[in-house]
Structure to design on (64 residues):
């Protein structure tokens, strides 16, 4: 499985996550060492994926 590093925009902390599914506009990840999944979406391919979980906002911008 592909591993990525997502960032919590509320507190600037990063966390490793495993990608469960990925398209150009949708990303589903599970936080490493947990069973917590986060759905991230984006409207524009030049913008980061953004998702919310438990009142926190997470984002990931792929490196090209």
């Amino acid at each position: 499985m592909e591993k990525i590093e997502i960032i919590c925009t509320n507190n600037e902390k990063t966390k490793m996550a495993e990608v469960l599914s990925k398209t150009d506009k949708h990303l589903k990840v599970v936080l490493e060492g947990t069973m917590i999944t986060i759905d991230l979406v984006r409207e524009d391919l030049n913008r980061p994926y953004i998702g919310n979980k438990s009142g926190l906002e997470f984002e990931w911008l792929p490196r090209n």
Q: What stands out?
A: The mean pLDDT is 95.
